[in-house]
Amino acid sequence: MLNVTLRQLRYFDALARHGHFGRAAEACSISQPALSMQIKELEEALGGLLLERSARQVALTRFGEELSQRVRDILRSVDELGDFARASQDRFAGRLRIGMIPTIAPYLLPTITKNLTRLHPELDIRVRETMTPRLIQELVEGRLDTAIVALPVSEPSLTEVALFEEKFLLVRPGSDEGTPAPSREMMREMRLLLLEEGHCFRDQALSFCNMQSAPPREMLDANSLSTLVQMVSAGIGVTLIPEMAVPVETRSASVSLARFRDPQPSRTIGMVWRKTSPLARQLLQISEVVCLSAGKVRARQTVRSQRA
Questions:
Q1: C-alpha gyration radius of the chain
Q2: Across all residues in the chain, what is the average pLDDT?
Q3: Which of 14, 15, 199, 293 qualifies as a cystine partner to 195, CB 3.0-4.6 A?
Q4: Is the Cβ–Cβ distance between 25 and 35 less than 8 Å?
Q5: What would the mean pLDDT of 137-155 be, rounded to a whole number?
Q6: Could you tell me one molecular function GO term of this UniProt entry (predicted)?
Q7: CATH H-level, domain 83-146+276-304: superfamily
Q8: How is the chain split into domains, by residue range?
Q9: Record: fold of 163-264
């Protein structure tokens, strides 16, 4: 009988993802020698080497690569078994792993967390903030329960639920206050500051300006909306930001804001989860809380704008 434990499989999965004993051990909250011992016992139980070890990193052997995907499938099934048990209960409790893209998380997360904690006090909410492709990968692999992203994601194995529409605003230097917003054609001649490659918001901004990619002369990218706004404040160029980010990102920057003429650029924010998830009913309830939270955030923005 094969003597393999779920703990060993989780340790191997962490090691396969990180490619480094130290980082994998940290992710699993155990010591590196303990992780190494468990992996060695797993190799002995399976009768083959899983790793090629070197001083700096580890690489999967061919056997290890083939096993890696099977292990992920096993672990996902085990996690879904736990989700199935939770879904059968009247209350929503236990771990909830939510992913969010960086152009949403800082502005919506505090309100979502507050509302979820109030409605479901037994939830253990864990948040993962990263770009859409990685969120989708982790969701498909079972490492996340749901993700809040810009739609569509067009992944056949996922359910998509649209939540709300969000407009984009033009951010310009403060000296441009009161001047009309430029047309799409005029935007193509301006120094447009963008998020770095991989952010879906970058692609949405380029699409609005009818550009396939940023012009070679404009290579000033940033990894956050905050940096983009500060670059505009310094007179380097102009940028677009989602409406929800405006109060946070412009409060300490000498910039002006302008809305475009209709049709205004916008994006659809939604929630996605695996079609096979036993928590589908509960996640649909969570999506309603997210809509409520977004409505409160936007209401606060309206009040601030009226006061200003």
A1: 23
A2: 85
A3: 199
A4: yes
A5: 92
A6: DNA-binding transcription factor activity
A7: Periplasmic binding protein-like II (3.40.190.10)
A8: 4-74, 83-146+276-304, 163-264
A9: D-Maltodextrin-Binding Protein; domain 2 (3.40.190)
Q: Which residue has the tokens 């996340």?
A: 144
Calpha distance 17→19 (Å, rounded): 6
> At residue 266, what are phi and psi to the nearest 5 degrees?
-160, 175
pLDDT in tens, 12-36: 888 888 888 888 888 888 898 898 8
At CA 173, angle to CA 268 and CA 149, rounded to 5? Answer: 15
Predicted pLDDT of residue 306: 42
Q: What is the pLDDT of residues 188-201, one digit of tens each?
A: 888 889 888 888 88
d(CA 87, CA 89) in angstroms, rounded, equals 5
CA 297 – CA 110 distance, rounded (Å): 10
pLDDT single digits (tens) 262-296:
888 999 999 999 998 888 888 998 999 999 888 87
Whether the domain at 4-74 and the domain at 163-264 fall into the same CATH topology: no
Strand partners, 132: none
State the amino acid at position 69 in one-letter form: Q
Give 253's DSSP letter: S
In degrees and rounded to multiples of 5, residue 83 shows phi and psi of: -65, -40
Most confident of 55-64, 178-187, 237-246: 237-246
Fold of 4-74: Arc Repressor Mutant, subunit A (1.10.10)
- Quote the CA–CA distance of 55 and 19 in Å, as a whole number: 12
